[in-house]
Structure formats: C-alpha cells, structure tokens
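User: Please predict the structure of the protein below. I'd like the answer in structure-token form so I can feed it into my own downstream comparison script.

Assistant: Understood. Taking the following sequence of 47 residues as input:
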Amino acid sequence: MAPDHLSRTDSDELARRRRGRNWAIFAVLVAVMVLFYAITVVKMMRI
C-alpha cells in the first residue's frame, strides 16, 4: 500500500515496478507449468 505522502510520479513509478514484478512472476509460473507439462509428456512417451 502506497503512503499518502508520495508524489504522483513516485506513485506511478511504484505501480510500474509492481507491474513489472507481477509480469516476471507470471512468466516464471508459466515456465514452471510448461516444464511440468513437458516432463509429463516425456514420461508418458517412455511407457
């Protein structure tokens, strides 16, 4: 939660950083999901 004493530009900068961090976490989660999917497919092909 942003404090009330931040200027508009500081608040915008914090929001921009937060969005960037959220996209990075999203990308990591998608990469992990793809990795697990690929491992599952490979294991099923070996049976």
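That's the full token string. The radius of gyration is 19 Å.
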